[in-house]
């Protein structure tokens, strides 16, 4: 919904405009905004947040809502209440809304935000798995007497449940997107890793180089602190790393123009530079000969993931200090790289403490090594149950022990 103070952030020269747009009485506000955007060489994208409904709607349709184990609603900010995907709001009404918006407004793009299960809200509160009416009914129909999981620590939480039923199955979500989307920003209490945006964009562009990557760089300090400006150098780093990895930089600003977001001026410089040299950056693909596989939390428990990610960060930082070019591979998708026509381009692949691979992935790795590829496996990478090596390429048949702490050496 566009209010009377809605204004365009920048014109085609990247200059911030002063003063609100003036709406015409004869036309709808969206026509004025679209016309103003197009006259400045800009495209206007619509956004819908399908996660939440107003309190009045929630009271009328409790079967649409995300429910806690105690039957409580999941309350968001501004009196909004979370809904769950199996409910009729997601399954039916959301398509009515999308049909109305796309029929009435001839926007240039469309972004549907947060369409999954919401176990944790913006305010950092963990509510656990949905126990609402729709989720409960579907679970009972599927699982019978098996109790609906409470949270990520339960044995029948989806990741653990699937791993037990199908140990070789790897969860892949969102692989068919026409535009990859990554949101880069800091949050109070989150450990800062300065290569995070670079490696995330790298893993996306290397997987499907024909699909554009949009890195949405947030100008404020996460949602609960949205009035606090992100540190200037850190914010610029998001945009520069995105550009250097072949992604498209985007700046996300919220609230009013009176809020002093210091990063906007540097964002204008970087964005204009990217647009000026778009012929150079368009279609930019990774050319590094070394691939570093990043861990995936969906295939590990929390402790395993923390150990693997620590190993990944250490190897990534070390190779950068040695000026060794590398491409990040995603844990789920890296076998695709080794099967691709240009797989011989990757001379070295590094597995940082990734644990037991799928049997299919183990075969692909062994075949790739047999064809001349060089594999570096650290920690428990390539090791299955009982310490038995799953990879023929490993120099040992069994792993007797793992030393995780310096004091043990």
TrEMBL record:
Q: Which Pfam families match?
A: GHL6
Family matches, as InterPro entries: Class_I_gatase-like, GH, GHL6
The protein's superkingdom reads Eukaryota
What is the protein named? Beta-galactosidase trimerisation domain-containing protein
Q: What is the lineage of its organism?
A: Eukaryota, Fungi, Dikarya, Ascomycota, Pezizomycotina
